[in-house]
Amino acid sequence: MKYLHSMVRVENVDASMTFYRDALGLQEVKRSESAAGRFTLIYLAAPGDEDAQVELTYNWPDADGKAEAYTGGRNFGHLAYAVDDIYAACQKLMDHGVTINRPPRDGRMAFVRSPDGISIELLQHGPALAPAEPWASMPNTGSW
Question: Is 121 noted as a catalytic residue in this protein?
Answer without folding.
Answer: yes
